[in-house]
Structure formats: C-alpha cells, structure tokens
Queue: 4 jobs
Job 1
Amino acid sequence: MSEEISTKETEVAPETGELTALLQEEFPDAVTGFHAHRGDETVVIKRDALESVCRFLRDDSRCSFEIMMDLTAVDRLEMNQTPRFEMVYHFKSLTHARRLRIKVLLAEDDCKIASIHHLWKAVDWYERECYDMFGIHFEGHPDLRRILMYEEFEGYPLRKDYPIDKQQPLVELKEVEERHVYGRHA
Amino acid sequence: MDTDYGGFKTTTFDSVVNWSRKFSLFQYPFVTACCGMEYMAAACSHYDMARFGAEIPRFSPRQADVLWVVGTITHKMSPILKTIYDQMADPKWVIAFGACASTGGFYQNYSVLQGIDRLIPVDLYIAGCPPRPEAVLDGLMELQNSIQHDGPKANGITPTAIRHENQKVDQLNRYFEISKKEVFENQQNPRSNRVSKPGFTYSEDFINVSPHIGYDSPKMQKDKAALKEE
C-alpha cells in the first residue's frame, strides 16, 4: 500500500521543551500553561511568581537568560477572552543560544504587575511604553510615566476601546469643518 | 513704470524687491521623518536647490524666510512647530512638504496632526509620499512665482497651474490616440495577426478613447448606481 501524502501536519505528541520541563520542576504551581513550536517555547505563568521566575531564569546556569529582548501587552477585548491583558516577555540566552517567551495574564480591573527593572535595566522603557499604551501599572518601577504620548493625554491609546483616531490636540487648532465619526470602521 | 494686475498697481520697486526675495530664500528645514530624505536629495548636487537661490539651510528661525515642514507632525510636536513659526520674522512663507504635513497623510490616528494648516498658514503644499525631488523643485518654483506676483493673479489661476493643466491634457491625448497607420500596418508589432482577426473594421478616423480616470468616491458611486437604476 502506498503512503498517502497529506499536507496536514502529521499527528505527533505536542512538543514540550526542556525549559518548560525545567520551569515546571522548579515552580510547579506557577506554570499554568505552555506550548512550543519547532524549538520556540512559551510558558504561561501566574502573576505572583513573575519576579522569582525571572530571577531564576537570569541567574541559574541551566537557563542564564542574559538579555531581556521585549516586553509588550496584548489587549484581548475583541477576542472576547478573559483575563483581558496578556503580558508577553521575550528572553534570550547567549550562553545556551536559546529564546523563551513568558506570558502573564492580567485582569482588567487589576492590571498591576511587578516590575523587573532590578533584574534587567532594559525593561525600564518597555514598561513605560506598556503603561503609556495599555495602562498597566508596574509596581516598583522607579519612574513610571508616559513615554510616547504627552503627559496631558488622557486614556490609553492601544486599548481596543480607545477610538483609534480620537485626537487630543495640545495647542488650539483652527476650526475645520469635520463631520468625522471616531473609531475604526467608521 | 507701473504694472497693472487687474486693478492692483504695483511698482517696479516692488517687483525688484520680490525678485530679490524669491531668489534668496533662506530655508528652515523642519524635518521630522522620511520626507527629509527627499529634501536632502533635492538639496544635494544631483537635483540642486542651490541653483534656485535656496541654498543654505539656516537652523535658526530668526535667520530664515521659508519654513519647510518636512515629515509627520504629531500633536506632541505641534507646540514646538507653532513656536518656531512664531519666532520667524516677516516676510515668511510655509511649505507643507509631503502627505503627512499636508493632511496627516498615511496616518489617521490619535497622535498625528491632520495637516499643519490646522495650526499655521501654509503657502504651498507639495504632495507625495515622499515627493520626488523634481516635484520639490517644481513646488519651489511655484512658491517663487507666488512671491514674485504677490498681488492678485491673472484670471485667478497661476501661470504654473495653467502649464500643468496643458501638460496633462497633452499626455492624455498622446496616450490614447492610436494613429491609423499603426493600427492597420501594425507598426508596433509586425508579428501580430490583428488584421486577420474577425470583426476588425476599417476606419478613417483616429481612434480616441477617453477613459474614466481615477477613483469613484462613495458619493459618486451612489449617484452612478442611482442613475443605472433609472
């Protein structure tokens, strides 16, 4: 019998990475979910464990993630998923040549998370950007203020419920006849 | 000797002063974004703005005549732009360079000022994203024209605009006229068998096609649909 060539991915057991196994071993109750694809691992952890997990990732010689690559947030309002915000941290290890993604889920009415600036100085401005754009408060951050928008700006523009083209001018603009409906799909 | 511009009298002295102003424009390039690359290209040796007299960029508003607003202006930047404009001494002109400075361009969002003419009076808009250096130079010449003739224009339309209109009409006529000779002798492609195709008719006249150019706005689409229903 000839083998059927199918374009769908053959059914294999879901990938689990070494880092996921390591984190599950060290922090059994912190890991709430994980997935991996072709060597890139993602681990979802609880908010309270963030600081200790990050410290472990940086200091332990089995992981040694020296570089904090990226910190961003996802607003899942339009995907109708709760909790609303999902923080995404990317780390890179030079000694082991590996990357890792850590995700933390935050509820809308309690969008506070520990700042990890004392572990990697680079997250300073990333956290300020997340605060500016999503309104997520980082506890312990030395200077949490807006970075891209100006201080007088009200609201958090990258949240899905902020109308994307609502402008808040700083100087008085000339009168222009405008019958514009703010928001997308207007 | 006076020149008469449809009721307005200007003197030779005025025209000499305007001539000297237009050929010695000191620019303040207020460059924020990608249009700056095209500004630099227009100012450098290949497309040379210096031959129009607009040679040196003065990075102080006190020393400049023309404020070139090049690139995207955000709301965060708008008080700064207003301050720079206010600091310039008369006579001063403003050029909105590129789509973002003219109308907000590509960006219609919470942070971009939708056109600097909401903030300061603009004398010239150069469209493009980014505009080619030739377009920049054309705009500069247009500005010089308006500086020279700072009274009312003849017929309400500038000579440059008339020239542009004529050029466009020429282009369209050239493109859509297929001369009889080419059609029947297949000069464009001697290997084509167009003559032998059925339904081919012999015609004495030029075949002139006037196309519908451009994009129908939603209002136009609705009107057309209404017309079709009738």
Note: Chain A touches chain B through 16 residues (CB under 8 Å).
Job 2
Amino acid sequence: MRNALVQDANMFLSRWSVSRKPRWILWGRLLFLTPGFQFVFWLRVQRSLAIVPVLGPALRRVIWYCTTIWFSCDVDPQVEIGPGLYMPHPLGIVIGGGVRIGENVSILQNVTLGRVATEHLDPTIGDDVEIGAGAVVLGAVHVGSGAKVGANSVVLKDVPAGAIAVGAPARVIIRAARSEAIVEDRDLASVERVIG
Amino acid sequence: MNAILIRDAEMFLKRWGATRKPNWMLWLRLIFLTPGFQFIFWLRMQRAASSVPFVGPVLRRILWYWTRIWFSSEVDTDARIGPGLYMPHPHGIIIGAGVRIGENVSILQRATLGRAGDNHVYPVIGNGVEIGAGAAVLGAISVGDGAKIGANSVVLKDVPAGAVAVGAPARLILRHAGKE
C-alpha cells in the first residue's frame, strides 16, 4: 500500500509542476487539504483492510460508507486499481465492483465505470488512460493503454491502445503517425472538429 | 466585496420574482436556506481572505477545503469571477485555476470549466452567459457575451456572442442569422 500511495502522490505532484520528492509540507498539503489525494488514500486503506482478519470486512464497510458520503463518490471496495491513480476532483465518481484499472490512470469528476444493467460484466481500463469529465464506460469493454476518453462521452465498445473515444455513443479515433483514421465514420465533420 | 455580494443576491432575487430590494427576511433566506447563494458567499470570502496579512493564504486554503466538502463543488481560488454570479444548484461544479468569468453569469450543476489536456490554458467566459447542467467548456476558448451552452454539451471551440452551443462536441447555432 505504501508504494502505491507514493506513486499516487507523485501523480499529484507532477500535475502541480513539483519536480522534487514529496517533503513533509507537501505530504501535509496532500493529506489535509487535497480532496483528490484524500479520496485515493481512503480507497487504498479500504483495500488494505481486506487482509485484516475478523474485523477487516466490517471496518472496510464503515470506511467505505464515510468516504462515499464525504466525497460524493461511490467506488466499490472490490475494484482493483493500479498504483498512480489520479483523481483531481473526486465528485460524483461511481466505479462498480468488477472493474479493473491499470497504472497511472486519471479519472475526472462525474465519471461512471460499470456494468450494463443486467449483465455482470465490467470494463477493464489499461495503463496511462485518461477518462474525461462526465464520461461513462459500460459493459465488458476494454480501454487500451494510453487511450483517452472525452468529456461526457458514453463508451460501449472497445477502445484500442492510444485511441481517443468521443461522443455519445462514443466514436473511436485512432491516433496514427500523421493522419487520423476514423474507425466508425458516423460523423466525419464533427470528428475533425474535435481533433482539429 | 459588499457590492459584489449584493449583485449576486440580486441575481437570485430576480429568479425568485422578487422585485423589491433585498430586505432582512430575504437576506436571511439567502444566507441560511439557499445553498447556491451560500456557496457564492464562501467563494467571495475566500477571495477576501487572501488579503489578510500572514495567515491569508492558509486561511483561504482551509475555507476552500470545507466549502469544497460541504457543497461538492470545486472552484479554484485563482479563478476570477465577476459580480452577479448565479449558481442555483451548487453540486459537482468544477472551475479551474485560470478561468475568467464575466458579470451576471449562470452556471448550473455538474458544469466543468477547465483546461484540455496538459497545457495550462483556460476558457474565458463573457458577460450574461448561461452554462447548462453537465456542460464541459475546455481549453483556450472564449465564450462571447450572452451566449448559451446547452446541457451536457462539450465545448472545445470559441462561441461567438449571442450564439447557442449544443451537443458533444458542440455545434453552434447563431441566433441572429435566423437559421442554423
């Protein structure tokens, strides 16, 4: 848990343009005055409580409840999240129980990752993925490493590594070396507006 | 700060259909029973706190933290907001550090004003703009005076004065041309 938290902290410090290692004053600011880091911290605590015998599950549930109310975010304690999670604005984020999240992932406010109503299949998120404000990723989809999901988009299909998904339902834009190939050519003009 | 808060209060009273000047009863209702006005009040207090000598920056940061938790909305202390701000439902609103907002602007719940990606450039919002619920306005763009941004739209390009932007990514509808 300690290593994961240090990597989480480094994600925040890199966005603050702080190049040096976290000193005590930066740790103080992260732990007491940065809601995003506090939320990630309590997620890691919930995770590590699972291995405590007897009292662990009950304590985890209580911490989960308080964290959910305090930050208006509902992240299931079963979610597997790699180190280096970056949630700058923990508001309205909902992540379902079966979701798997890789390393160095950014998740912005009002994001939902979960299953489609009746199926018990949840998305998996690769490494270095950025999920924009208000985006919804539903069902047994895989978001490849380095992909970006645009604000307010609804992703229902796989997103390849390095691609961008935008719109509702999301269109996938592959970022090739120079030109952009449109996989699902539903509205070429609006896609060009986004990437132009 | 007093003059700014009165302008903010007048925006609320106008929506309530109260034509008279705010009397003590309306002020009590605004300050104790109107989350939107309370949130704006604490945003203005954060600005005022920064002028306190020595403890100002720390005080501002503590006020910011508790406002953030209480209202579930995050407005960076460096954002510049003109008088007459109207936020009827302060929930899930995120406004980034470099954002500039004009006078008499309405911002609804879950709206995001911020940067796109890693470059530190933020949108500039003109006077009398209305931003709908869940809208995202991202990057180095300007939204002209009197423009409207539809609910859940994603605005990535400039919006001219008086235009309406809807959809994700947003299309522009120029109201003065008479057609789309």
Note: Residues 56-71 of chain B form the longest helix (16 residues).
Job 3
Amino acid sequence: MHWLFEPGFFSSQPVHTAFVIGTVAAIASGVVGVFTVLRGQSFAGHALTDVSTAGGSASFLLGISPLLGFVGFGLVGAGTIDAIGTQRVKGRDLATGIVLGAATGVAALLLYYDTIDSATTGATQTILFGSIFEIDPSTIPIVIAFCVIAIGIIAFLYRPLLLASTSNELAAARGIPVRLISLGFMAALAVAVGLSSLAIGAILSTTLLIGPAATALRLTNRTGLALITAAAIGVLVTWLGVLLAYDSYYWGSSQIAYPVSFFIVILTILAYLASGLPVLRNLTTRREQRRVL
Amino acid sequence: MTNAWIAATIIAVIAGVVGFFVVLRGSAFPAHALPNSAFAGAAGANLLGINALIGLAAFAGAAAVSIATLGRRGRHDVATALALVLGLALGALFVSRSQEYENQLYSLLFGEVLGVSTTELLPVALLALASIAAIMFLFRPLLYSTVIPDIAEARGVSSHRIELAFLLVLAAATALTVPVVGALLIFSLMIGPPAAARSFTSRVALAIPLSVIIALITVWAAIAISYQTNWPIGFFVGTISALAYALGRGWAAWRVWDDRRAASFKG
C-alpha cells in the first residue's frame, strides 16, 4: 500500500484533525450549498468568506477567539447584504459587491497590521488559504457545534425555503414570509461559511460550498437526494485532497508539499465538469433503452 | 509619488467607465473573480521569471473565456465561482513554490500603488486606452444588450458574444490594475463609484462621467490620506467607495421622500 499511503499517514495527528474538520466543513457546506446554488447566491456565499476573513484578521490582531471573529463578522455581513439587497438578482448582486468591497478594505488594514506584527507572521497566508494541517484539535467540538447549527437552520426552514428558492413569487403568494426566510437562510450561510473559512480557508470554503452542490444538482432533480450527493462529493474530494497533499511531500526532491487547497479545487472542478458529460447525464435513459432493446 | 498619482488616475478612469457597465449588467461577481485569477497569473509569472503583465493578461483572459463558455450551459454564478477558486488555488500553488511568501502575497492582493515605476506606467496607459476604446466601440450594442436583452437579440446582437467581449474588456482592465491597486481593491473601485453615480442620475450620458469623477475623488483621497496616516491605501479605497454608495442611496431616498411630500402638498 506504500504507493498510495505514504509513511505515517494513519498515525499522524494533524492528518486525523484535517480529516475530521474537513469532513464536518464539507457536510455543512454541501447542505447549505445546494440552496445557495438553487437561489443563485454563489456570490454572496463567496463574499461572506472574505467578510469572515476580515473578522479572522481582526481576531488575530485582538487576540480573541478566531471563531468569534469569523462567524461574528459573517453574520453582520449577511445581515447587511440582506438589508440593502432587493429581491431582484441584479440588486442583490450589487449589495453583495458593496459589502464585499468594504470588507476587503477593512481586511487590507487588519492584514497589514498582522503582516507588520512579527508575532503573527504567516497570518495572511493562514487566513486566506487556510492550513488544514495546522488546526488545533481543541477546535473540533466548536466546529461540529456550528455545523449542527447551520444544518439545523436549514432543516427547520426546509419546506418554505425550498419553495421560496424555486419560486419566490409563489411562496410570497402562499403567505410564506419570504424576507424572513431569506434572512434565516443568510444566517445559515454565514455560519457555514464562517466555520469553513476558519477551518479550511477562504478558497476551500467557496469551493466546497458551490462545487459539490452544483455537481449534485446537475446529477439529480430531487432536492433531498441532491443534499446527500453534495455532502458525499464534498467529503470525497476533501479526503482525496488531504491524501494527495500529504503524499505530495514525497514527490520529487523538493520536499515541499503542494497546498491542500490546490488538490481539492482541482478534484471539485473535475467532478463538476464530469457531471456535465452526456454519458453521465443520460445514464438513466440509456439503461432504459438497453432494457427495451 | 507622481507616478502613483498618474497610475491611480488612469485606473480610476478605467474603473469608472468599465465599472458602470459592471453595475448595470449585474456582473459584480465576474468583476471580483477576474482580478483574483489575474493574481494567480502574476504569481505564476513571478515563479517563471517572465513579465508579470503576460501572466496577468493570460490568466484574466482565460478566466473570462471560461466564465463565458461555462456560463452558457450551466448557471452563470456557479461558473464564475469555479473559475474564481481555480484561479485562487493556482495562485496558492505558485506562491507556495516561490521563496518570498508573505509580503509578495500581500502586495499582489492589496497593491502597491506608491511603488509604481515609470517603466510600468507605459503599458498601463496603453492597456487603459485599449480598454476605453473597446468600450466606446461596443457602446451601443453593449448598452442595448444590457438594458433590453430580448430586443437586442431580435435585432441581431448576440448576448453571448457581447458577454464574452465585455468579460474580455474587463479582463484587460483587470490585468493592468492588479499590480497597482491589487486584486481585491480594483473591485471596490469598480462597484462603489458607479453604483453611487447610478443613484444620483439615471441618464447614461451623465452617469458615466459622474462615476469617473467619484472614482477619481476616491483614489486621490485614498492616496493622500494613506500617505499621511501610513495606513494601507486599500482600506481607504474600500471604505470611501462604500461611503460614496451610501451617500448615493441616501440621496435617492431623500429624492423619493421629497417627491412624495411635494405630491401631498399639491393633492
């Protein structure tokens, strides 16, 4: 098995933590991601990672718990986007853009201080790209708790949220409080994105939120199935990515591991592209044709 | 210092003009994704030891084409998100392979407008002229296709082609601005000032110059305050842009309120 699992893979503590955190983040992102893609709010999902990043850099600087910074800023950002955005897609896009622009400005200032402060060297890299191998195992319970909160909100809102996501007008006509539902969804999004940007970095947060969900929605029309498929794809690419990144340390002679984010992103995009292939799309119809023949 | 003023002025003009269409078309997400992909190109060029502008243009262009083609079949925002994370992941890969890590990363993302050299100004100015010329050339079909896409399509203006052309202009504008103001801040400049201008006036002929003026005020003020306080320029660009938008929204709200009051007096 040495060609597949390089020495020490199963006994390494950072790898264990990376697996647990990566799995939890992938499940939360997959579930929230299906609704993000259905609602066409990928941009808000991505913007919240940058807003959370600003919160993360603030917590580095103030010495408070990063989780508080990530999730706190995320919730404020989500509320602002929802408050200034209209229900029209273009207006929502603009609201997201304004919040994102302001947040990156704040992040620029905070990261600048993180960079010149020698005690927090590496903050820019850690906050932006995340280091799944350098997570403190003691954060695992908190990450799991936030994952449960995010999935809990989605489960609580499930039916009205689904209707509001597919047809906002129909939902409003049936007396569903669509503004409230939208705000509730944004809160779930902020929690999921905050926890995953803390755990695995801003890049992977967007990747796991959008990639597996979009892939799942291309494979099936049933929402329940899409939720499970998205979480499964997310977990799978995360595990493979961690494995490849660990092994990559032994590739060539440079002895520098490739970033985990690189592998997970590549695997996610390959999965998305593969789901668009006619072969996979016509899988069910083909099987039926064969039966007829 | 003079170079910084010239570079910032060129960039503000571009951001004001191109950004107007970004806001009108609701293309804020691609406008955010392209600079981030360009960042990967700069990091890659740095690693290979070639001119950064080649890497920037190649990556921004590739991202524009993939967003336009992937977005045709699937969901547009999904295609943009995937192009964005691919760019960022490649950037992370390139930066991890090179020696100088932290400071280089910071300056590529947040810019170094005060360190612009005279030799860097010429390509920036040329690309700027090219982008403005492209917008002028595309102006009418672009406006039609943005405001009334169905009628534009019926009159033979392909919205897919316009989308691709617009994204390529956006990519060119991005490639030249990333080394100067950084990947994250060109975005604020392309959204805040044009959005503010749109809330002040709905007339295109007025809104575009106004958007350029607000963008110019934003960068000039940002440079001046940043020079005084020694705080990063990006912070001021980001907050002043957002402030301009808040003012614009306040003005629009006041106008509506004023109209209603006038109407109630008459009634």
Note: Chain A is about 80% helix and 0% strand.
Job 4
Amino acid sequence: MIYLIVNHKKQSDKKIYLLNRLFAINKIKNMSKTIKILGTGCPKCKTTIAIVEEVVNENNINASVEKVEDIMEIMKYNVLLTPVLVIDEEIKIKGRVPSKKEVEELLK
Amino acid sequence: MKLAKEICPTTTLGKVHKGALIVDVRKEEEVAQVTFDVPNYINIPIDELEDHINEIPKDKEIVMVCLSGERSLKTTYFLMNAGYENVFNMRDGIIKWVAKGFPTKGDVASLQSISSCDCSSSNCC
C-alpha cells in the first residue's frame, strides 16, 4: 500500500514536471524568431548567413536561422535577386548583403 | 507550385525558328561581350525585369536565358508567377549554346574563362 502511494506520487510529480517542460518549450517557441536566408549558395548569400548568425549569437537572440537554397522554395517568395532576408515570413531585405547594424535593428 | 519547364539549347533553337522570343537576363556588359545571334531576342537584365515585364508578350513562346541557366531559372518562375504559361528556361545558358556551336555575336573566347559547365544530365543534349 505504501509502495502504491509513493509510486502514485512519483508519477504525479513526473506529470507535473513534463507539463512544465511542455509549457516552457511552447513559451520559447512562441518567442523565437524564424530567420530564413534565401539564396542559391553564392558568396553574397554566404556572407549574409555569416552576418545573421553573428548577430544572433552575439546578442543571444532566440531565433532559428535557416538557409534556403532550393530554387522552388526561393521562388515561393517571388524574388528575383538574392540574397533575401526573411524574418517571420516577411521579406526584409532583398538582393543585397545587409550590414550587421541593419540586421541588429531588424531583430530587435 | 508547378515545376518550370526546362529545355536544352537545341530545343531552344528549334523554338526560335518557330518564332519563340529569347529573353536574355544577363547584365548589359555581359551581353556586350558575347550574345545570341537570333532574330527574336531582347535583353532585360534580371534586376530590371520587374519594371519591364510588360515588354514580354504573353501570346508567344518565351525562352529565358542567361550565362549558366541559374538566373534565368529564377526569372522563369517569376514569369510563371505573373501568369505566363508558355515560358521555358534554357538549361546551362549561353555557355552550352556556344559549346553546341549555335549562332552568336561577339567574343566567344570571353566565355572560356568561365566555361566550367560539366553537365552530366542524361536529359541534356
């Protein structure tokens, strides 16, 4: 009987712990920015990726940085000139390498 | 999104003979060096295409071309998104066109330094 009570408490604690983790993950997810860099792998695109990653790391910005090199995916945004910086599905900069300061401003 | 229709230089030349329009999206300075010697040809650099899209007829077959076929593929999708149905991309660009010995104007040798086309596709003629 004692064993059952203890075991039940353990399971209950585990449930609470898992729920808390789930809430925490969701909270992080909600706050996180989604950054996409569209480009077919040219030097300008690589420079843009490096700048964005530098800004994200230096400022501890909660964001996912994704390189999009597939032409079909790129053209879903209907852009002719790359690199393109997309933040939360909104095109912010296209056809040029942004400055570090610009990226910082956009991610504030 | 539909896949862009891609064709090789030989098919492109066949379409040109039937009245298709070649739209070259290279920069003016690239075109000044070497270009396509075909009757129905216009040059609209990729960064000007958005402003000059109305110059491209919708009732003709259109073949988009560039140096290697990469820029022109983007513009093919751009035209498709704008409602063009008879638009094609010429794979491997003017590099392959020259390699096939098709008509050109200008200095073909200027392409040699960048002729690194290593097409291994079985569909490429």
Note: DSSP finds four helices and four strands in chain A.
